[in-house]
Amino acid sequence: MRKLIIAGLMAATLVPTIASAQNRELRHDRQDIREEQRDVNRAIRNGAPPHVVRDQQRDVREARREYREDWRDYRRGNPNVFRGPAYVGPRGYAYRPIAPGYRFDRLYYDRRYWIDPVRYRLPAAAYGRRWVRYGNDVVLVDVRTGRVVTVYNSFFF
Question: For labelling, which of 83, 134, 141, 148 has a CA lying 20 to 30 Å from the CA of 103?
Fold first, then answer.
């Protein structure tokens, strides 16, 4: 019994440490992306040769790719976070694949469809934009116009 209690206490202290390490890693990757983008802007502003700018842009792409891979690892490791309740759309709802530029009716981005970007490790939405659930997809919508800015298909299981 004593070993079971000790093992439970060890697990309880280890799990938050792993979660904070993942958060730290993702935060570090976002910082790398910002730094690489600053380097590109600085190279363009200072009139660097085209091959230097291309190298800097390649570094930004690699940093973004690494961030996506870390996010996918998080998603694979925590599938229950992405198993939400069944989506119930507004009256007359029928799912259709959408792309950026599509215009939603106001009913589709009502408050009850908003999702928390922090919980799902999504980028923060700018002022006037909200992350919205649409079927199993997650959509960034401009709430003033209803225009779709970004779509993540098959986000929920």
Answer: 83
